[in-house]
Amino acid sequence: MKRVIVGLLIIAIVTGCSSKNNFNIEYENQDECNKPKLLLSKDGRNIYTYCIENITIEMKDRKAELKSYIEDNSNAINEIIDTLKLEDTLKDGGTQIYKGDITLIKCNTLDGNKDIYIGNDNMKFKQNFCKDNNYTFIRTYTVKDISKYAEQQYDEDGNRVSYGNSFKVELNEFQGETKTVIINNLWDITLEKNKTYEFEFMINEDVTNVKDEIEDIFKNSTIVGVKETTKTGLEQIQEPMVKQ
User: Fold this and answer.
1) Architecture of the structural domain at 137-235
2) pLDDT (tens digit per residue) in 145-157
């Protein structure tokens, strides 16, 4: 009797592993991509894809587009998570980042955001993720000059503020004047002279009446992404500061 029970347990374990290994996801990377794309809204949360498209899921002898798979299966997100490995839990309330063939970010913020972000295995968490108003805008600038900036900085009330890795940067927008800005806390981004970049900005929530000018944008916004581009002239992305 004991042998039969052990045998059944072994069969159950092997079957479970086999089911998990049968999971397969296929997708295409989007080269021209800066922002998450809303896939669908379900159960009080938004589900986004990030820089991937034409996504299909194959699990338990069923193959379907990702959107249909989630719409038709109330446990779809958990089934996908079961095939991934928990890489990190953020201190924003418990947002979790899972990695495997894809990256899945399951938001769980203190202010109640429960959104999901799905991208390729290299996707990283961005500052506009897991926010109820995650609208960002992109402006394209050419770096005319760049140098380290070490002077003391002050806030609007005259109080000293300290930043790390600050740079003084001369930027030019197509058909615009060259302006000088101070960019603080530029840790994971390297800017080079005479190269052109797409800057993705998120306006700080407590800031109002920001002028649509280079200096005001950099002063009152958070940079959530920078991407080098070879686009020139009217091909460059210059999006509005507010959602239209």
Assistant:
1) Beta Barrel (2.40)
2) 999 999 999 988 8
